[in-house]
Amino acid sequence: MAKSKFDKLLEAIEAANKIKSESAIGEEIGQFTKESFDEFTSAIGAADTVSKVKDSEPSVYEEALASLVSSVKAFKDSAIQDSKEREQRQNKVVADNQNLELKGVILKGWHEGRKGTHSIHLKNRIVSFVDGRSDVTPELAEDLQKAGYIE
């Protein structure tokens, strides 16, 4: 029997918490800034909040799952790396483990060369961006565009 969207969300939350528990804040290669760690913690918390409501529509769980998958990717990409490794990682296509269709989006007004992480709270979702970019479901991309957040 196929897993429900709710079950997939619970598994993703568990996996994200494992990644968080194995991560360290610091300035060494492979570590994370306090800001990216805090944003990842917030994204996990938002997904966990959605999972506490057991009678939501499956689409709500799917959106939370997509947001969390995007946050995991953004968090992993925010690990401190040397510049060559970072470039290789950005050029590599990474398929998410949930087989969701994702669309790359760019924050409005994000200047090329600007670095950093940013989170947007939209309805009951948190969308994390790294260097002005994020991968989201097409539906979420449409909502972000309607709200005026992305180009």
Low-confidence stretches: 93-97
What helical percentage do the residues reach?
Answer: 40-55%
CATH homologous superfamily identity: AF1782-like
Percent strand equals: 5-15%
Order of helices and strands: HHHHEEEEH
Largest sheet: 2 strands, antiparallel
Q: How many individual β-strands?
A: 4
How would you state the average pLDDT, rounded? 81
Query: How many domains?
Result: 1
Apparent shape:
globular
Structure classification: alpha+beta
Task: Describe the protein.
48% of the residues lie in helices and 13% in strands. With 151 residues, it is α+β, with helices and mostly antiparallel strands. The chain has one domain (5-146): Up-down Bundle (Substrate Binding Domain Of Dnak, Chain:A, Domain 2). Strands 1-4 form a two-stranded antiparallel sheet. A two-stranded antiparallel ribbon has the order 2-3. The protein starts with a helix and ends in a 5-residue tail after the last helix.
How would you briefly describe this protein structure?
Helices cover 48% and strands 13% of the residues. The chain contains five helices and four strands; from the N terminus they run ααααββββα.
